[in-house]
Design brief:
The structure is a single chain. The chain is of the alpha+beta class. 33% of the residues lie in helices and 20% in strands. The chain is built from 13 helices and twelve strands. An eight-stranded mixed beta sheet has the order 3-2-6-7-8-9-1-10. The protein has a four-stranded antiparallel beta sheet with strand order 5-4-12-11, with no helix packed on it. Strand 2 (33-40) and strand 3 form a beta hairpin. Bound molecules: iron/sulfur cluster (2 copies). Residues 250-253, 308, 321-327, 337 line the site of one iron/sulfur cluster.
Length: 347
């Protein structure tokens, strides 16, 4: 997280020859756990690396968002024992660097910061977040399902990073976003970047902007959804959707979880655990005595769409979708949030 001190250098723009990138990463690995995109089974996954060569920064999207490092899919909150009481699980103090995070995912982390860090701070998330630095990477490649441009969350990034990288071919433009980011560059040979490099950067980003195939019209979204609560599309989706929950599992802004107590066989000790939950699953809205507030699939998919595009904004001041397109790519029934909104808007 950005600390409140100013940069000591006058120009927060530097150039890193691409051949020296591994030197920067090697340097970071001495002080931090570096987690970045690694090729895995034809996809990319954010993983802790042991060698800079494992990083593949020209990826389009990762299967799971880097959120998984801050809000883990599964974690033990604490252990308990009849005699010893509650035993806190302590995270290792070593800081981590999330490397090569795309703009949409940085925006998603900002949403998680609001959900987990403000009104009711979650100590597990906050602790990890405070020990995490973000080296973001602007997108010069655009995937078939990306629509971050419509959501104002990409392909470029304005804030929320410690360092921001833009691939300019044989060189990488590095923008310093915080004093902590400036510290990361110590001992790495860099040259100050002339301001004209920003023109080169814009050229690359403009090329990316022209590649978007999907869009979502964000004007008047709340009213559009309020006016179409009974639209026939919801009944079609009730028939189509398998309620598998995959769309929410890959979403970088979904933050729901379930908490369970697992008792050991001795009935004296156990663990309190939490794991990601999904509003698309049948049991999610089930309460005592078995009543389920969202028993039908159309009610659940409606909840997902309305939460992202109508309910988030009054609570968090931003839409809950960053246009990463993961939910579209992962849905075996090809259910597409941009198509749903286009249909509701009469397109
Ligand atoms: S991934 Fe598709 S089928 Fe599965 S719950 Fe989401 S919308 Fe339904
Ligand atoms: S709703 Fe879909 S496109 Fe939007 S942030 Fe979540 S996964 Fe990405």
């Amino acid at each position: 997280m950005v600390v409140a001190r100013s940069l000591t250098i006058p120009n927060p723009l530097v150039l890193l020859p691409k051949k020296d990138l591994s030197r920067l990463v090697q340097h970071l690995m001495q002080r931090y756990t570096v987690v970045g995109p690694v090729a895995k089974g034809g996809e990319h996954a954010f993983s802790a690396i042991t060698d800079p060569a494992q990083l593949t920064l020209d990826y389009v999207s990762s299967l799971l968002p880097p959120k998984k490092v801050l809000h883990q899919p599964f974690e033990v909150l604490f252990s308990f024992h009849q005699e010893q009481g509650v035993l806190e699980e302590r995270e290792p103090a070593r800081g981590q660097v999330l490397f090569g995070v795309h703009p949409c995912d940085v925006h998603a982390i900002e949403i998680l910061d609001k959900a987990y860090g403000h009104e009711y701070p979650d100590p597990y998330y906050v602790n990890r977040r405070q020990n995490t630095l973000i080296v973001a990477a602007n997108c010069t490649k655009v995937g078939d399902n990306c629509f971050c441009q419509s959501m104002g969350t990409g392909p470029d990034l304005q804030k929320g990073y410690d360092l921001l990288l833009t691939d300019l071919g044989s060189q990488i433009l590095v923008e310093i976003g915080s004093p902590a980011g400036e510290d990361l560059l110590q001992q790495v040979p860099l040259q100050p970047a002339p301001r004209v490099m920003l023109v080169e950067k814009e050229k690359r980003l403009d090329e990316a902007r022209r590649k978007f195939k999907k869009r979502l019209n964000t004007s008047g979204l709340k009213e559009l959804l309020e006016d179409n609560f009974r639209h026939p599309i919801w009944d079609e989706l009730r028939q189509d959707c398998l309620a598998c929950g995959s769309c929410t599992m890959v979403c970088p802004t979904c933050f729901c979880y379930n908490v369970v107590d697992k008792l050991d066989l001795n009935l004296k000790s156990g663990q309190r655990q939490r794991e990601w939950d999904s509003c698309m699953l049948l049991e999610y809205a089930q309460v005592a005595m078995g009543h389920n507030f969202r028993k039908d699939r159309d009610a659940r998919i409606k909840q997902r769409i309305y939460h992202k595009l109508a309910y988030y904004e009054p609570q968090f001041g931003t839409l809950g979708c960053v246009g990463c397109g993961r939910c579209i790519g992962t849905c075996v029934k090809h259910i597409d949030i941009t198509d749903i909104m286009a249909r509701l808007g009469g397109e």
